[in-house]
Amino acid sequence: MLIKGRVWKYGDNVNTDQIFPGKYTYTITDPVEMAAHAMEDIDPEFAKGVRKGDIVVAGRNFGCGSSREQAVTALKYAGIAAVVAESFARIYYRNLINSGLPAIICPGVSKEVVKGDEIVIDFNEGTIKFKDRVFVFPPLLPKMQEILQAGGLIPYIKAQLKKG
């Protein structure tokens, strides 16, 4: 699987309230409306400028804070194709996978790319390429790859139940 997209770059310790503002947690339930508020507290231009297939690249501990799923839903419905980070908060990482949004741990890449760079993520090779640089990331576990290919945990489980 290949993903080619434009980078939206963020630093370390981006928390779930910055990804999806906590003030909307109990008032917005529509995923499309959630997307309209994605990253607004840290990057007011994100929701206006993001395009389908774009990629978030961040530093360490991306998704720390509360385990609200809206912080994943907002990015997914904004059109983000993958999230690459130096490291993830544990629950946020799993929420990304469960929602069908690839989460890639790739040390070093966030220090090299800048907002607007185009990168190519090759899941078969385990590489992220941009300009003349190549970064290697550990492959996702086979079960996680199956969940992503199914579109998330719920579609994966439904398909497994149909198989019997």
Provide an overview of this structure.
This protein has 164 residues and is of the alpha/beta class. It has a single domain (2-139), classed as Aconitase, domain 4 (Alpha-Beta Barrel), CATH 3.20.19. The protein contains eight helices and seven strands. A seven-stranded mixed β-sheet has the order 4-3-2-1-5-6-7. The longest helix has 11 residues, at 153-163. The two termini are 27 Å apart. The model has no long low-confidence stretch (mean pLDDT 95).
Share of β-strand residues: 15-25%
- Structural class determined from secondary elements: alpha/beta
**Multimer state:** single chain
SS element count, helices = 8
CATH superfamily: Aconitase, domain 4
Shape descriptor reads globular
Helix content: 25-40%
* Average residue-wise pLDDT: 95
In the residues, how many domains can be counted? Answer: 1
CATH architecture grouping? Alpha-Beta Barrel
First-to-last CA distance: 27 Å
Q: Say what the CATH topology is.
A: Aconitase, domain 4
- Tell me about the largest β-sheet: 7 strands, mixed
Secondary-structure element sequence?
EHHHEHEHEHEEEHH
Question: If strands are numbered along the chain, what order do they take across the biggest sheet?
Answer: 4-3-2-1-5-6-7
Total beta-strand segments: 7
Q: Kindly provide the name of the CATH class.
A: Alpha Beta
Radius of gyration, Cα only, in angstroms? 15 Å
Contiguous runs where pLDDT drops below 50 for at least 5 residues: none
